Amino acid sequence: MLKKLLFAVLALLLATGIAFAEENINPVVNMDTLVIMETTLGNIKIELFDKEAPISVRNFLEYSKNGFYNDTIFHRVIPGFMVQGGGFTSDRKQKPTRGPIKNEAANGLKNDRGTVAMARTPFPDSATSQFFINVVNNKMLNRPNPDGAGYAVFGKVVEGMDVVDKIVNLKTRNMGAGFQNWPETPVFIRLVKVLK
Asked: Which architecture characterizes domain 33-194 according to CATH?
């Protein structure tokens, strides 16, 4: 009888302790999406800023999930500035895109080293699929620079900046109008997939 009573008390204490522990589990603070970009020079893991740049993140994820980035290249590489990709094949053909999105450069995020931002034309709301990774702090791209609108940051490299640094140090050449800073050795984006 005493053994049964002790067992019941022990079971009650364990259950109470477990319930207490479950109530006090810290919530997950970082709910941002993580993606992996597989390239021919290695993998780049990117944290997407879902809260600060929801339009840009949703746009990037739609292109990623549809396989749009598969076998595109980093077509514009400028040391001391950035690497740009997400729009061209190795034979200099631009892939057809969806319509442009709203510029979210007013989100407070800065074009610092390792951040990922939307590429665009001189028109602020013209970004489609192309993006760039800053290899230095590019203050001149932050809103309101350079044209009053700025360039919208929507993510940050959390692993693989060594891969980005390899890309930015590739030898480039001028391939004609609209194709300056073109890497002589193409670096392909094999795919972009969501990790969480």
From this structure: Beta Barrel (2.40)
- For the chain, what are the domain ranges? 33-194
Interatomic CA distance for residues 115 and 137, integer angstroms: 9
What's the CA gap between 129 and 41, in Å, rounded? 21
Beta bridge partners of residue 38, listed in sequence order: 43, 191
Backbone angles phi, psi at 81, to 5 degrees: -140, -80
pLDDT in tens, 43-88: 999 999 999 999 999 999 999 999 999 999 999 999 999 999 999 9
